[in-house]
Structure formats: C-alpha cells, structure tokens
Amino acid sequence: MSRKGWLIGGAVVVVVAVVVALIVISVSGGDSSGEAATPAETQGGAKVAALVKGLPQAEFAIGKPNAPVTVREFVDAQCPVCKTASEKTIPGIIKGPVKDGTARLIIEPLTFIGSDSSSAALAIAAAAQQDKGFAYTEILYANQGQENSGWATDEVLTGIASATPGLDVEAWKTARSGEAAANAVFASSDRGQASGVSATPTFVVKGPGGTKVITGAVDSSEVINAIEAVS
36, 101, 111, 131: which has the highest count of C-beta atoms within 10 A? Predict the structure, then answer.
C-alpha cells in the first residue's frame, strides 16, 4: 500500500468477474441471515446528514449540476486511505467550493481490493439510484472494516442504508441486485481506466482551465487549490 493511496496496478481487470459473481449470489438470495443493524448501531449518519444538508444530490454526486468544475473521486470502499480522505479531505471540499457552487463532487466506486469492495460498490450504486450515492459512501467509511475480512455483510450494508438520510431501504435492497447497479460500477471502472487512475483515492479535477489529478488523502486545501486553478 502506498502511503498516499492504495495502488491499483493491474488488479482493476478483475472487476467485471467479481461484480458479476456477486450479482449472481445476490439474485439467488445470498447470505441474508441476521437482522440489519439499526441506525443507532451504525456510525456517521448524523454527521453526514449535517454535511449534505441543503445541498443538491444526484446519483453519485453532490453539488450544483451546472457547477463549472467537476471533481471525480475514484475510491474503493475498503481502502483505508479513502476513509482517511473522507475524514480529512472531503468536508473542506463540501463546505467550501461545493457549497458555494464552484464545484460538484462525484463518487466513482472501484472494486480492486476484493469481494467486500464489490459488495460495497453495488450498495453505493443502489443508493445512487435514489440520489444518495455520496451520502451512503461517507457513512460507509465510518463503518469500514478490515480489508477482505468479510465485513461488508448484508447486515452492515443495510444498516448503512437505514442510516442514510432519505433513503428508501426496501427499494435500495431491490436495486442492489439489479443490472443498473452493476452497469454503474462497470462504468466507474471504465472511467477510472480512461483517466489513468492507478491508486485510490484519486481526485480528477476538471474545469474550463484544464484538468488536474491528485492522489491520496491530502489536505482539502490541495484539492481546493486545484479547483481554483481550473475554474
């Protein structure tokens, strides 16, 4: 693991097989034993609710659709550096250029670390169908388990859904095993490869003044400076 980000290397090529396998498991029922965690047992819901309050959300994005700058954050839900970025980098971006309408932030879930990555990515994509992809992702980080430990269970992912403000949990459950969620994850993988993403998190900042790429859980000021440079 890089100090600044999780290195992807060639592992991204396995995304399709892993996600397809998870869809088959989900459609056939999977492991649905146990009751879902309640919002009280799930960390981060209130904090994220306060962060997104009053801001427009659409699919995986937060911020005004006509913002002059787009920031795509390529992430893996299992990546510990992505969790650090959620705590260190994201709040400043949201409270600054996203809130003032300069930038729009879009989550791009990748699935290179393992099967928990794919389970979580499909859960994020299902939440995105209700325009809650960003909020779900941020709450997920607050409940992130150890890599490839099997932590992204139905119970945990459903608890996160219950804690996501405004999310219809029953509709989300159906969407997780749908073709649209899988296609959204595939599309994020394609965009990551097209952008040359080799580690997570990677921020691709694009505006009228060009494109800048930043990798790692950097201080929010570094991304904000990039937003200003391309505005």
Answer: 111
- What predicted TM-score, i.e. pTM, was given to this entire model? 0.86
Q: What CATH number has the domain bearing residue 111?
A: 3.40.30.10
Query: Does 1 fall in a domain?
Result: no
What count of other Cβ atoms lies within 10 Å of the Cβ of residue 150?
13
Query: What ranges make up the beta strands (E) of 59-217?
Result: 61-62, 69-76, 103-110, 199-200, 202-207, 210-215
Instruction: Calculate helix-pair angle for 133-142, 80-88, nearest 10 degrees.
Output: 110
Full residue range of the structural domain in which residue 196 is found: 6-230
Look at the chain and report how many structural domains it folds into: 1
pLDDT tens readout for residues 107-129:
999 999 999 999 999 999 999 99
Q: Which of 200, 206, 198, 199 is nearest to 223 (CA)?
A: 206
Q: Is 75 helix (H, G, I), strand (E, B) or coil?
A: strand
